[in-house]
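INFO  loader      accepted 1 record
INFO  loader      residues=320
INFO  predictor   begin
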Amino acid sequence: MDATSLDVEVRDLTIPAEWHGERFDRALAALIPEFSRSYLQQLMADGAVLLRGAAPRKPSVKVQVGDPLRVELRPTQQAMAFVPEAMALDVVYEDEHLLVVNKPAGLVVHPAAGHWSGTLLNGLLAHHAGAASLPRAGIVHRLDKDTSGLMLVGKSRQSVEALVRAIAARDVKREYLALALGRWQGADTCLVDQPIGRDNRNRLRMAVIREEVGSGKPAQTTVTLLEQGEQVCLVHCKLHTGRTHQIRVHMGWLSHPLLGDTLYGGKSLLGMERQALHAARLSLAHPVSGKALAFESTPPADWMAALDQAGLHYNRGSSV
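INFO  predictor   done
INFO  writer      dumping tokens
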């Protein structure tokens, strides 16, 4: 969305005597104190601030008493991000309190740098009016952009708070199917209990952090082999915690990075250009009624095509 499609406030100001001889950026911040300096700096970079009728070359230019100043207060990218955008949501279940959606690969869940529109949050704001009054439009957990599958969304404040508590208490069971590289090593089922934190060598990655370093958070994943071929194995992963990139990091630590997950040591094979990870099953007590609920989702076409090329097979019950 273009900033010109939303309201722009124009302010015409004059440099007062007490700011004569000061830096332009400091004077600007003093004259419009309700906005952050980073926001005002972005306006300057965008040419939305004029001093004496022209955009200053440097924020350090000195101002003089009586200088005319015009500022266009444009909506920030962040402000424009939280707007409704109609999209076709694959709704698995819905009532007045709870929404379960089947997220496609490629859909960003929450607005962030580089993805200020077209996110699941934007779609939820368009899907029901109550989303606008809820934290993060009711989103209580996330999937990576290129991970497909089931997601829980609260539709009322009561359900959002209950879901957050249930996830923290590990009362929501989240199970995934993954295609991993290599022939499986070791026992058919293993519990990976390795803390996860930001990778100091690459800030885009997470990593298993040694306990003595102290910056990692506890993370546990149960991994079960379902079937294997010569190059790829099909595994079931059950989360006990919900760290960023947890399954991807733990599978890399097991020396079985996910197919297509180049960030964590995987490689693109069998047509998979993204991590071959699918949130296949969710089970929980309804956040308001307490009724037992369980949902399953079959992996998408590209995932299934890679599985077929690997000579492996998926059964509906594989995610249980």
